[in-house]
Design a protein that fits this description.
heterodimer, A: about 140 residues, Bromodomain-like, 5 helices, B: about 220 residues, Glutaredoxin, 5 strands, globular
Chain lengths: ~140, ~220
């Protein structure tokens, strides 16, 4: 990948994290859809990424991945688990959602397949890839 | 360094502004949507729903409530005051949206009191004394108290109900299907929180006393 396009990757990651943050708040605060327990754990991993990646971009910190990747990987793990429950690959009975809304209740289904857990999964995968691909180039630049 | 800040600020501003505009547009579009409420047999109003105020009032206020919900409790005196203030122009319809452990039992007791003609008295006492029996958010669960049913019996006696008859009605479980139906109706209308208000079929999207009043006034003006 050419260097110019690679330098866009952290911005792309930041925009994804920002959209995921704003979007999840839109779902809960504007549309009134209550977030389930697993959604909250994913939010915990997602929201700080806006700040961490943002500061990483501003300070041109090549070590950004060491701060950001643990969060995206934690989020990704929870998200994979959530999707497995959501699509019935794991039985719901093992879901740790005793209170509030069930983690498998379908609240949004755009175009018949775009659901909230799927969007979260896509966001965490994209973030992880952006950070992995970017740092290889960034490290070269710094060294 | 400056360039990066500029880019992030620009993108951030665009996203935030777009979201604010989107939120306002979304709320407006939902709130302007009018669901059928006049027929008295649709998901908003059922023939057996508890009703307060004249049947031909120009404004019908449907409230999806939970007897155990603290906000519903706080809001209740305001609703009752509005019914007085709007003097004959407002009709209240109560629907159930049980979201707490004792909600269904409390709703059944209120319905049973309704059989003896004291629905609203029972609702009032349930709300007023909710801290004794209800779940309290953000507070450690207090020392084990008496079971809710015992407390409800006592409230019923206090407002002069036939407790034996009341207990029988509740024991027969005859209100379960009504409460279930209300909950299903609510879900079909997208009700996820309590209280949720519909003013002449229009859902209140920004929850506050002022906005509820404003929506009622708007409906009265259009009338």
């Amino acid at each position: 990948m050419p260097v110019i396009r690679r330098s866009v990757l952290p911005y792309l990651a930041w925009v994804i994290a920002l959209l995921a943050t704003v979007g999840s708040l839109f779902f809960s605060e504007v549309m009134g859809l209550p977030p389930c327990m697993l959604c909250w754990y994913q939010r915990i991993a997602m929201y700080p990424l806006v700040i961490i990646i943002g500061i990483g971009i501003i300070t041109r910190d090549g070590r950004m991945k060491y701060y950001a990747l643990p969060l995206t990987l934690i989020g990704l793990t929870i998200s994979i688990y959530h999707n497995l429950l959501y699509y019935g690959i794991f039985p719901e009975s093992i879901a740790p959602c005793a209170q509030g809304i069930s983690c498998t209740s379908r609240q949004i289904e755009w175009l018949g397949f775009i659901t909230i857990p799927l969007m979260a999964l896509a966001a965490f995968i994209a973030l992880t890839l952006c950070l992995l691909l970017h740092t290889t180039e960034k490290e070269r630049e710094i060294v | 360094m400056k360039k990066q800040i500029k880019i992030l600020t620009l993108i951030g501003a665009v996203v935030v502004i777009a979201t604010i505009i989107g939120a306002s547009y979304y709320r407006k579009s939902i709130q302007s949507e009018r669901r059928p409420f006049a027929s008295n047999d649709g998901p908003l109003v059922r023939p057996d729903s508890p009703t307060l105020g004249p049947a031909n009032a120009p404004v019908t206020l449907v409230e999806f409530l939970d007897p155990e919900c603290e906000t519903c409790r706080t809001f209740n005196p305001f609703i009752k005051q509005m019914l007085k203030d709007y003097d004959g122009k407002l009709r209240l319809v109560v629907r159930y949206m049980p979201l707490h452990p004792n909600s269904r039992l409390a709703a059944a007791y209120t319905e049973a009191a309704g059989e003896q003609g004291k629905y609203w008295e029972m609702q009032e006492v349930m709300f007023r004394r909710q801290p004794e029996w209800g779940e309290r958010h953000g507070q450690p669960s207090s020392t084990p108290q008496e079971p809710p049913a015992v407390l409800f019996d006592r409230y019923a006696a206090e407002i002069g109900l036939d407790v034996e008859q009341l207990r029988n009605s509740v024991a027969q479980n005859k209100f379960a299907s009504k409460i279930d139906r209300d909950q299903k109706d609510g879900q079909s209308l997208g009700v996820a929180r309590t209280p949720t208000f519909f003013v002449n079929g229009r859902q209140l999207m920004r929850f506050s006393k002022e906005n509820l009043k404003a929506l009622i006034d708007e409906e009265l003006k259009n009338e």
